[in-house]
Design brief:
mainly beta, 7-stranded mixed beta sheet, 0% helix
Length: 126
C-alpha cells in the first residue's frame, strides 16, 4: 500500500519560520520526493527535490532560507522554512515517486510524480 501525507504550515509574519512534513509510506529504498508551491494566479513552482540517497536540489528562490532533512528509512521529509516573506505565500504540495531517484533538476516536472499530498497552506503577512 502506498500513502503520501503532509502536515504543518500555517500563518506567520515576515521574517518568521514555519515547518512542513511529508511522509511517503513505502517499503522501497529508492524514491524521489519533492515540494511544489502555487499561489493564486501564478505558475506552479518547483521548490525542492530530494532523493532517498540524500541528494538534494533547491530552487534559487528559496536557497539559503529553506532546509530539507530526510529520514530515508521512514520515508519522511521535513522542510524548515526560515526568513519567510510574503512572496512565499502559496499552497505547498508534497510529491513523490517510488522506485526512482530524482531526475536532473531541469528534467523533473510535476507531471513526472505519481503521488501527491493534499496540500498545505503557507501564509506570510507583511
Amino acid at each position: 500500500q502506498v500513502e503520501l501525507a503532509q502536515s504543518g504550515g500555517g500563518s506567520v509574519q515576515s521574517g518568521g519560520s514555519l515547518t512542513l512534513s511529508c511522509v511517503f509510506t513505502t517499503t522501497d529504498d529508492r524514491y524521489c520526493m519533492g515540494w511544489f508551491r502555487q499561489a493564486p494566479g501564478k505558475e506552479r513552482e518547483k521548490v525542492i527535490l530530494i532523493s532517498s540517497d540524500g541528494s538534494t536540489t533547491y530552487a534559487d528562490s528559496v536557497k539559503g532560507r529553506y532546509t530539507v532533512s530526510l529520514d530515508s528509512r521512514a520515508g519522511t521529509v521535513n522542510l524548515q522554512m526560515n526568513d519567510l516573506a510574503p512572496e512565499d505565500t502559496a499552497m505547498y504540495y508534497c510529491a513523490a515517486n517510488r522506485f526512482f531517484f530524482c531526475p536532473p533538476w531541469g528534467r523533473t516536472t510535476a507531471a513526472w510524480f505519481g503521488y501527491w499530498g493534499q496540500g498545505t497552506q503557507v501564509t506570510v503577512s507583511s
